[in-house]
Amino acid sequence: MDESYAGIPGSDLVEAGLADLAREAESVPALLVAIGAPRLRELGVPVPERPVAGPEHRLYALLAATDVDSAHSRYNALLRRLVSFERALACAGRVDAQRVREFMQALGAEADRDGHVYFTGGVTAVLTGWRDSTIDVDLKPEPDSDRLLRAIALLKVRLEINVELAAPDQFIPELLGWRESSPWISREGGLDFHHYDYCAQALAKIERGHARDREDVSEILARGLVSVAELRRRFAEIEPLLHRFPAIDPPSFRRAVEDAATTAERRLVRR
Fold first, then answer.
1. CA-CA distances (angstroms) from residue 190 to 109, 151, 152?
2. Angle at the Cα of 259 (from 255 to 264), degrees rounded to 5?
3. Fewest CB within 10 angstroms: 54, 100, 106, 166, which?
4. Using one digit for the tens of pLDDT, what is the confidence trace for 54-76?
5. Residue 159 belongs to what domain range?
6. What pLDDT digit, counting tens, does each position of 209-219 carry?
């Protein structure tokens, strides 16, 4: 898949679908891409021209074959991921450190009260230095006043960047003391900008488990932004709360955390 799609939500699913369509394999990703083929082609995604008859019905049948009770909800969740990818790609502009700073200054100038903005994901990678650019700006504003949210919506259009309200605590339990552990970046106007707690970011990425997420976790640990001991300790703190997030499989999450920690330890030994 074109590297310009890297970092767009759902890109891993679309990439798998394109690969399966190219080898004429019928799979969940392939049928999803077939459903979105007209719009994806308009956006420049090289969807194979081979027509797929009735991809909507075939996708539902494939999901129902594994678990009929959850087929409807999984079908809708997949469509939401496809639409999210299409929307992000439609307004995607590569956002480098300079454009992030421009966004910070513009948003700070709009604030009518003191507040905080916590960046996560691609912006952290760009400002910290292991990526040159990102597709979208993920953030959590506090407080999330109407004025600030309206300003974000306007700046998305004016600066031509994709901004999403997203933070680790939407996907995993909130870590104790995350605000105090969120490194300060700068103050612009009435807003203090921070990186969202690095350990919370790492754990959320480990749970999601996409290829780009694993790369980011590796960078976070290799750069010493989070120690292996902290990763294990803070996972242990939230582990009793994982039942509040039904999408998480606790044993799988624990194994993934341990795998990431062990891999980081091996790298340290080789140095």
1. 7, 13, 15
2. 150
3. 54
4. 999 999 999 999 999 999 999 99
5. 94-271
6. 877 788 899 99
